[in-house]
Write a structure and sequence with these properties.
heterodimer, A: alpha+beta, BirA Bifunctional Protein, domain 2, 2 domains, 11 helices, 11 strands, rod-shaped, B: alpha+beta, Phenylalanyl-tRNA Synthetase, Chain B, domain 1, OB fold (Dihydrolipoamide Acetyltransferase, E2P), Phenylalanyl-tRNA Synthetase, Chain B, domain 3, six-stranded mixed sheet, 20 helices, 38 strands, elongated
Chain lengths: 348, 799
């Protein structure tokens, strides 16, 4: 074999490879091309078998050329491979489905009652109130007598109780915490007391267990205007600053004067109608009852050895379920303690 | 309290708008819960005149009438036997819906057109008579054809339903509410007529009050020659409007005066009373007495009775006796008007479940000074309605006369408490308008509240009155200064509980809140051992709620049942709540323990792609949560010990200890128990004592540890162990060696070879030195030593 033929054969390989590379349409075909040309039994190796047959002085040039061609072949092949890889990458990107369901870790929730208690507590702690908790089984003394509700007082009708013994009962309100806190501390005192309370009452609008938050403040020169200001601020935070607040005289044995607080209806904004129909929340009155409050009765101060001439204070009590129902548009009281997951999971 | 507007107008010349009245009453503390129109259905019932009445050609009991209703003459087919020409009758026009629910439509009755319906008194719920149509001209005069019945019969268009708070006993009457309206609208108050024509014969009854603490005043009038009959329409209507059923003229008058003046009265049939003596005395212990509802009542020594010369005749203030009740033969009436101790009446009424309009008023307090007036008012009405002869004089005994209270009042205190400037002039004007006597002084006034305002006892009560009339809603909003001491409070319990809840939320648990009470049956099912410790409710609403929870699972199982019933079978729940145990040491006789419950059941991650529904939660999921909680809240050195107890509701039951102290437990709810709550799958439950965790949490401090400077290295070791060998035994052997360079040991695999009663546990040991890179040789030496010790001390081998 002459050098010329050998070199021509080598050169020819390039054209052949290019042709085959053009034809290759997949990575596997490309691999076949590599084997056909660049493997130990490939076309290049076959041509190289002619090298020993050349004259010794021709061999260095032939060898150099052979290396050149080998590199050329390899780089052509590599280029094609990169092309395929790039294409594949692009295809993968094109087919990526961002809409598949994700692996969501389990989503925890707090009960709406907790949400309200925490929101209210946060507002009052920011005003300087502390949060106090107390026993759910109470003595008649803390639950009634110390709150100016002696035995056989008609005001006991307002709260039908679940008794444990004739002297202990499930607390009917969070107000005992007023007495407990005031007995433990000297004024000034500012605290709120959230928790479970119990009444012997069960129907569509009453649950035998529900939640209240008691709040109270005792200091020198506390006025009913302070009470109004505190509650207005609180109600604006919870229901929005456009909410109107109304004070209406009422009666609680442990406050004097006492008031019910109404807010403009959260459903109809106080208009009494929703889309021309009677508002189901306020029954067209435009107002909804939200809490009871008043100035702490001197009789309560006497029970805790505070001097009513020196100190005055206010107290209020609100129903947590009531607030949750208004705030989250919940129509049915009983749903709170069913703990249906479909209900709980709405409060993410 | 239902207030008839027409009745109110007897007392005050109120001519305003009912909405305004309702609003003003509400804003002075007399909450109008509803403006009712109880007779609205009578708007289209009119006075008609029967101008023609002839028999129906195809019926022997129907009549064909032509009825003039003012605007037109209607053909009406009427089935009443008493219909006749020239009668004035109530005609329900087309479209009227009667109280029975019947809506009047144009109809053909046996071929004859009927446009409207002639009604009976009973059909209109204005009387008892249903025997025939209501012939109005027999009972009423000045009727005008075409007028609707509300106007024609003088019925109320509006009735206010007013919620009266317990302190306002004075407002449990038309008079009391009229007083308030008079103040609100500056109207004069007019009292009703009490004129009585007495006969010359004198009442010869003796009153003896043997229980002076229970009866303050007893008065009686004697009336003879009474004609018992139905009350006139105006009286019946007023009672109906106020929610009381008319009975006969004598009983009706006592009810009428009670509603009007707030003083309950009782009428005895005098002929059924023995002797000429009334005694007020307590019952004998265990004595039986039949009240006029026919029920035999067993009495206690604390119940007050009215006796004639021989026997009890009434349960004082609560209900009359069957033996002396007014009946169709009654002609002589002994009319009682008394004032009893509110507490006595309340105790009896409550114990016997006999709350009546009468006991309700006695419990709240009667205006003793008005009582004689009420007696005269009732006597007057009885004389008018029954044509009775009234014997001269009143039999009367008063053991505790009304005592005026004098209250010191400082007008400056009003603004001090209310936070708004209110003038002295307004204070004095208001207090006077409310009936208080006033004796002004320089700094202090002496105020004498009227006898009907027993709730006014102290200065603060008067301040409230001033504020109430001024308008509490006019008080401005200011913010108080909340003075705090510099003493820094530690983190409080509430914040801690909140952190626990947020932790639980963060690890994907859903908060449940269950009732604190459960059925005793449920506690029995779970655990019998705690029986003596349980806290029972004396008067439960139902057997389902008769005992307080001694464990949280008892409540959570209800949540499980609710959810399984609604196809929610994958639950990750938590609850923070108290358990309750009897404890004589506590002042409440009850120990309350705040606990955290966790419950896992169903699919671990989710039922759908990319998760798999057959991966269910197991012990390790639950234990992992407990360990996570422990880490976050600073509990160290946890130990999990298997407890053997056949009677416990968990199996396996694993107790959790932290530094030797039990902080809770966890395990699998017994299948039988789960089944009872319709949960036929594994329920993994943990229950932790939050006070114990709080104690750890308070100790928790962050303390920085130097980060490692040199690389570590690991070696694995696989041990073939008997199935009974607990992992902790392996770890203890290693830790007892106290290898300084051993940083951590982790399980990397546990493999159970098929067909063999053993397990292959592979551990990875992490070695590191604080001050150099470890050499292989060094590590190998230590590692081999560990391996050898394990083989020595435990029943294990290398594979």
């Amino acid at each position: 074999m002459s050098l010329t033929t050998f070199l021509a054969e080598l050169d020819g390989l390039i054209q052949e490879l290019e042709k085959d590379l053009d034809k290759a349409s997949s990575i596997s075909q490309l691999e076949e091309v590599r084997i056909r040309y660049l493997s130990r039994k490939g076309r290049l190796a076959e041509v190289m078998k002619g090298l020993p047959k050349l004259a010794p002085e021709e061999r260095p040039e032939a060898g150099r050329k052979a290396n050149e061609i080998k590199e050329k072949l390899s780089s052509l092949w590599e280029a094609k491979k990169r092309f395929f890889e790039q294409k594949e990458k692009e295809e993968r990107l094109r087919d990526f489905d961002p809409t598949l369901p994700g692996r969501i870790p389990p989503v925890g929730t707090l009960h709406p009652i907790t949400l309200v208690i925490e929101e209210v507590s946060a507002i009052f702690t920011s005003l300087g109130f502390e949060v106090v908790l107390g026993p759910e089984v109470e003595t008649d003394f803390y639950n009634f007598e110390a709150l100016n509700i002696p035995p056989e007082h008609p005001a006991r009708d307002m709260q039908d109780s679940l008794y444990i013994t004739d002297k202990t009962l499930l607390r009917t309100h969070t107000s005992p915490l007023q007495v407990r806190t005031m007995l433990a501390k000297k004024p000034p005192v500012a605290a709120i007391a959230p928790g479970k309370v119990y009444r012997r009452d069960s129907d569509l609008t009453h649950s035998p267990m529900f939640h209240q938050i008691e709040g109270f403040l005792v200091d020198k020169k506390v006025t009913m205007a302070d009470l109004r200001g505190t509650l207005t601020l609180f109600l604006h935070r919870v229901f929005g600053s456009e909410t109107r607040v109304r004070f209406r005289p009422s009666f609680f044995p442990f406050t004097e004067p006492s008031a019910e607080v109404d807010i403009s209806c959260v459903m109809c904004g106080g208009k009494g109608k929703v889309a021309g129909k009677t508002c189901r929340v306020c029954k067209e009155t435009g107002w909804v009852e939200i809490l009871g409050c008043g100035m702490i009765d001197p009789a309560v101060f006497k029970m805790v050895n505070y001097d009513p001439e020196e100190y005055s204070g206010f107290a209020f009590g609100l129903g947590v379920e009531r607030i949750a129902m208004l705030k989250y548009s919940i129509g049915d009281l009983r749903i709170f303690f069913d703990n249906n997951l479909r209900f709980l999971k709405q409060f993410v | 309290m239902l207030l008839s507007l027409n009745w109110l107008k007897d007392f005050v010349p109120f001519a305003g708008d009912v909405e305004d009245l309702a609003h003003r009453l509400t804003m002075v503390g007399l909450e109008v819960e509803e403006i009712a129109s109880p007779f609205a259905y009578l708007e289209t019932v009119v006075v008609g005149k029967v101008v023609e009445c002839k028999p129906h050609p195809k019926s022997d009991h129907l009549s064909l009438c032509k009825v003039d209703v003012g605007t037109e003459v209607l053909p009406i087919v009427c089935g009443a036997p008493n219909v006749a020409q020239d009668q004035l009758v109530p005609v329900a026009l087309i479209g009227t819906t009667l109280p029975s629910g019947l809506t009047i439509k144009k109809a053909k009755l046996r071929g004859e057109l009927s446009v409207g319906m002639i009604c009976s008194a009973q059909e209109l719920e204005l009387g008892e008579d249903s025997s025939g149509i209501w012939v109005l001209n027999q009972e009423f005069s000045n009727l005008k054809v075409g007028d609707n019945l509300i106007d024609a019969l003088g019925l109320d268009r509006y009735v206010l339903d007013i919620g009266i708070t317990p302190n306002r006993a004075d407002c449990l009457s038309v008079l009391g509410l009229a007083r308030e309206v008079a103040v609100l609208y500056s109207l004069p108050l007019q009292l009703p007529c009490v004129e009585v024509k007495e006969s010359t014969e004198e009442i010869d009854y003796e009153i003896e009050i043997k229980a002076p603490e229970d009866c303050y005043l007893y008065q009686a009038r004697l009336l003879t020659d009474c004609t018992l009959k139905e009350s006139p329409a105006w009286l019946r209507f007023r009672l109906l409007t106020s929610g009381i059923r008319p009975i006969n003229n004598i009983v009706d008058v006592t009810n009428y005066v009670m509603l009007e003046l707030g003083q309950p009265l009782h009428s005895f049939d005098r002929k059924l009373l023995a002797g000429k003596k009334i005694q007020v005395d307590l019952a004998r212990e265990g004595q039986e007495f039949t009240t006029l509802d026919g029920k035999k009542r067993k009495l206690l020594r604390s119940d007050l009775l009215i006796w004639d010369a021989e026997k009890p005749v009434a349960l004082a203030g609560v209900m009359g006796g069957e033996n002396s009740e007014i009946n169709e033969n009654s002609t002589e009436v002994l009319l009682e008007c008394a004032v009893f101790n509110p507490v006595t009446i309340r105790k009896t009424a409550r114990r016997l479940g006999l709350s009546s309009e009468s006991s309700y008023r006695f419990e709240r307090g009667i205006d003793q000074l008005l009582s004689p007036f009420a007696l005269e008012r009732a006597t007057h009405l009885l004389q008018q309605l029954t044509q009775a002869r009234v014997l001269r004089g009143v039999a009367r005994k008063e053991t505790k006369p009304y005592k005026e209270r004098i209250i010191t009042f400082r007008s400056g205190k009003v603004s001090e408490l209310l936070g708004i400037e209110i003038s002295e002039e307004f204070c004095s004007k208001t207090l006077e308008s409310l009936g208080c006597g006033l004796q002004p002084g320089a700094e202090k006034w002496l105020v004498t509240p009227p006898s009907y305002r027993q709730d006014l006892e102290r200065e603060v009560d008067l301040i409230e009155e001033v504020g109430r009339i001024y308008g509490l809603d006019r008080i401005p909003a200011t913010l108080p200064k909340v003075s705090k001491s510099l003493k820094v409070e530690k983190e409080d319990w509430f914040q801690f509980l909140s952190k626990i809840k947020h932790w639980a939320k963060g690890v994907g648990l859903n908060e449940a809140i269950n009732y604190s009470f459960v059925a005793e049956e449920t506690l029995d099912l779970l655990q019998k051992e705690d029986k003596e410790q349980r806290v029972y409710i004396l008067n439960p609403l139902s057997e389902e709620q008769n005992v307080l929870r001694t464990n949280l699972l008892a409540g959570i199982l209800n949540t499980v049942r609710v959810n399984f019933g609604r196809e929610n079978r994958d639950l990750r729940l938590f609850e923070v709540a108290k358990t309750f145990f009897l404890d004589k040491e506590q002042e409440t006789l009850c120990r309350e323990e705040h606990r955290l419950a966790l419950l896992l059941t169903g699919s671990r991650e989710g039922n759908f792609w990319p998760y798999s529904a057959d991966k269910k939660v197991d012990y390790l999921d639950l234990k992992g949560l407990v360990e996570h909680l422990a880490q976050v809240f600073g509990c160290q050195d946890l130990e999990f010990r298997l407890v053997e107890n056949k009677d416990f509701y968990l199996k396996p039951w694993v107790k959790v200890f932290q530094q030797g102290e039990e902080i809770g437990f966890l395990g699998l709810v017994e299948e039988e128990i789960a089944d009872r709550f319709e949960a036929n799958q594994e329920l993994w439950y943990a229950d932790l004592n939050l006070e114990k965790i709080f104690a750890c949490y308070q100790q928790k401090r962050y303390s920085f540890q130097e980060l490692p400077k040199f690389p570590g290295t690991t070696r694995d070791i696989t041990l073939v162990c008997p199935l009974s060998l607990k992992l902790v035994e392996v770890l203890e052997v290693i830790s007892e060696l106290k290898v300084a360079l051993l940083e951590e040991v982790r399980v990397i695999d546990i493999f159970y070879p098929q067909g063999k009663a053993e397990k292959n546990v592979t551990l990875r040991l992490f070695y590191r030195s604080k001050d150099k890179s470890l050499k292989d040789k060094e590590v190998n030496k230590i590692h081999d030593k560990i391996g050898k010790t394990l083989l020595d001390k435990l029943d294990v081998r290398f594979p």
